[in-house]
């Protein structure tokens, strides 16, 4: 007997970097996430959309270890990571940004990125990673500014930079473009594309549909804690269920 069938199957399985199965989160009487399953392949940008309070952030919090799943399993690079502490998940190469930009206003860009890089390496190496990361997110000439001196677009670049400095294989972006003008959001989209071309996989929650449409290889729609649609962006926005619960008629006609 040959091993051919097994090797034929291997690449497809190896392609999946993140796999979530039947994830549920219970907050008292509220089932905020109610049985969501999702596979993300290496190198993909997957968009996640849905109404306010649908459970998108809570789902991200489970993937990144900030909230305990009451049921289900998360695998990253084939290994179970369900309910591991956030630092342990980050060290394996899966990291996230926060919906509310989380920087210490009095720290400099250099200090902020160095602190993030310390997850993986000792101080000297972390300082180097901080400089490399600043170049990547176009904050090299602002390394010694404090976070409070940054413009909003630069704060967003730093928020992504904090994730990049942990040397991740995959980043979860939670509404990182909220509050930006369209031209500023385009810059962030370009940054995400550059990072994706550099080998980082993305799961992206955004309400800005232009962004989701332009950046996503695939879109997942969450409504009331459940996955209600999944597919190519242009297909998903025409799905009547998605129009009904999230996009509205106007978008359908556009
Ligand atoms: N720590 C918590 N304790 C109790 N309920 C919570 C907690 N976090 C979120 N919720 C509730 O869980 C539900 C899902 O919230 P979540 O923040 O995940 O939604 P979301 O899809 O990210 O919404 P948005 O688009 O507004 O960011 C909401 O009803 C919210 O009020
Ligand atoms: Mg949210």
Automatic annotation (TrEMBL):
Annotated GO CC locations: plasma membrane
Keyword Transport carried by entry: yes
Record flagged with keyword NADP: no
Residues that span the membrane, as ranges: none
Entry superkingdom: Bacteria
One GO BP annotation of this record: D-alanine transmembrane transport
InterPro entries: AAA+_ATPase, ABC_AA/LPS_Transport, ABC_transporter-like_ATP-bd, BCA_ABC_TP_C, P-loop_NTPase
Molecular-function GO terms, alphabetical: ATP binding; ATP hydrolysis activity; L-isoleucine transmembrane transporter activity; L-phenylalanine transmembrane transporter activity; L-valine transmembrane transporter activity
One Pfam family linked to the record: BCA_ABC_TP_C
Residues covered by the ABC transporter domain: 18-249
Keywords: ATP-binding, Nucleotide-binding, Transport
PANTHER family referenced in this protein's UniProt entry, alphabetically: AMINO ACID ABC TRANSPORTER ATP-BINDING PROTEIN, CONSERVED COMPONENT OF ABC TRANSPORTER FOR NATURAL AMINO ACIDS-RELATED
Designated name of the protein: ABC transporter ATP-binding protein
Organism for this UniProt entry: Xanthobacter dioxanivorans
């Amino acid at each position: 007997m040959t091993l051919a069938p097994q090797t034929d199957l291997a690449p497809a399985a190896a392609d999946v970097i993140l796999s979530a199965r039947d994830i549920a989160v219970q907050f008292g009487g509220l089932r905020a996430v109610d049985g969501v399953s999702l596979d993300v392949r290496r190198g993909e940008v997957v968009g996640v959309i849905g109404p306010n309070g649908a459970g998108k952030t809570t789902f991200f919090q489970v993937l990144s270890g900030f909230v305990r799943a009451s049921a289900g399993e998360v695998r990253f690079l084939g290994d179970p990571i369900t309910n591991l502490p956030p630092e342990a998940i980050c060290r394996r190469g899966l990291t996230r940004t926060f919906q509310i930009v989380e920087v210490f206003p009095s720290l400099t860009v250099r200090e902020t990125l160095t602190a993030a890089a310390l997850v993986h390496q000792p101080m000297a190496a972390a300082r180097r990673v901080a400089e490399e990361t600043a170049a990547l997110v176009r904050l090299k000439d602002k390394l010694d500014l404090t976070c409070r001196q940054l413009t909003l677009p630069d704060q967003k670049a730093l928020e992504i930079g904090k994730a990049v400095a942990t040397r991740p294989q995959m980043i979860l972006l939670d509404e990182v473009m909220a509050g930006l003008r369209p031209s500023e959001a385009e810059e962030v989209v370009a940054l995400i594309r550059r990072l994706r071309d550099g080998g980082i996989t993305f799961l992206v929650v955004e309400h800005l549909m232009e962004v989701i449409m332009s950046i996503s290889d695939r879109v997942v729609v969450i409504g009331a804690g459940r996955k209600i649609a999944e597919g190519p962006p242009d297909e998903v926005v025409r799905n009547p269920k998605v129009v009904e619960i999230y996009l509205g008629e106007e978008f359908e006609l556009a």
